[in-house]
Amino acid sequence: MTDRDPLPKGQRPPLSPTATGLRLVGIGVVVLVAATAFAYVGGYLDPQRLTPDKLVNTLEHNNGTFPGYRRNHPKGVCVAGYFESNGAAADLSSAQLFTSTRTPVEGRFALPTGNPYSPDSAAPIRSLALRFTQADGQQWRTGMNAMPVFPVGTPEAFFGLLQANAPDPKTGKPDPTKAPAFFASHPEAAPFLAWIKTAKPSASYATVSYNSVNAFYLVSADGKRQAVRWNMVPVDAAQSAAPPPDAKDYLEQDLNDRLDAGPVRFNLILTLADASDPVNDASKQWPSDRRTLNAGTLVLESEQPQLSGACRDINFDPLMLPSGISGSDDPLLAARSAAYATSYKRRTAEVEQLPKTAPVTEKKS
C-alpha cells in the first residue's frame, strides 16, 4: 500500500459510471492524438504534403516496378558476420554494442540504381546496410552509401530531384534541361556535384568507405549527447583487378572470392561534431579536422544470394536504434524511414513473384 493507494486492489470500491466514462474518454484522446501525430508524420492528412507513397510511386515511375524487389537499391547480396567493439566509444554511448563484446550482424551490399538487372558499372556509388542485434534484443539498423555527402538537404528537394530525372512520356528518357535547371536552383548540391564528376565505379564492394551521411547522436549512460556521423572504412583496401570491358555482374563474384580467402573487415570510424557543425543537413560536410574515433571492427564472414538470404526481408530503417543512439532532427531521416516502410510493405506482399534464381544481366554478343 502507498499514500495514494490506501486500500488493497481487491478492496477498492468499483468506479462509478461517470468516472469510468471519463477514464475511457481520456484513453481515447491519447490514442487519437498519437494516431493523428502518426498520420501527420506520414503525410496522410494534407494531399499537398509529400507522402511516402508519393515518393515511392515516383521511384517506381522513374525506374520501373520489379515485383518483390526494393524500390531503390534492388540489386545486391546478403552478408553476415559480427561487430567487435574495442570499447573506445563506451564512454560516449550506452549502447551495448560499444562494449568490448561481439555483436551479430546481418547486412547487404547493393548497387544504388532502381533496376535489379542493372550492370554493376551503372552507378559510381555502392551501398552497405547493416543490422546489429545486441544480446539484450535491441537492434541498430543503418544504411550507408559510398559517397561523402547527400545531394540535397530536405525530402522535398530530393523529390524535386526525382521529378527532374523522370522519363518524358514522349521519349522515355529524362528531359535533358530539367536536371541542370534543378541544380541551378539548388546550390547546396555543389559539393555532391563536385564529387560525382570524378567518382568512378569500384570493382569491389570491399574496397570503398561507406558513410552514414546523416547525423545521429550518441547518448552516454549519464545522458550526455554527442552528434556524430560514421564511416565503415575497409581494413584491406587492396583494389581488385579491373573487370573486362563487357563484364556486367562482377561485384558479387569479387566478394565471394574475397570471402573464400578470409573475412572482409571494416573499421567503424565515428566523426565527432563540434557545436557549430550542422546536424540537420546531410548536404553539408563537416570540416576535415574534426576528431575521429575507431569504435571497433565489422567482420563479414559469409555471403548469401539476396533472393534467399536473411537480408531479403529486413527493412534497414535508419531510425531503428538501440538505447544509446538517437536520431538527429535531419528531416531526411524521417522521410527515409517512412519510404522504407512503404517499400517494405509493397515488396513483401510480392515475394511469390520473385524469380527463382538471381537475375543475370544480358551480355552483348
TrEMBL record:
Bilayer-spanning residue ranges: 21-45
A molecular function (GO) term: peroxidase activity
The record's Gene3D superfamilies line, in alphabetical order, gives: 1.20.1280.120, Catalase core domain
The protein's superkingdom reads Bacteria
Which EC numbers does the record give?
Answer: 1.11.1.-
Names of required cofactors? heme
SUPFAM superfamilies, from UniProt? Heme-dependent catalase-like
Transmembrane helix recorded as keyword: yes
InterPro entries xref list: Catalase, Catalase_core, Catalase_sf, Catalase_SrpA-type_pred
Indicate yes or no for the key word Iron.
yes
**Function, in words:** Has an organic peroxide-dependent peroxidase activity.
Membership in a protein family: Belongs to the catalase family.
Q: What is this protein called?
A: Catalase-related peroxidase
Species: Pseudomonas folii
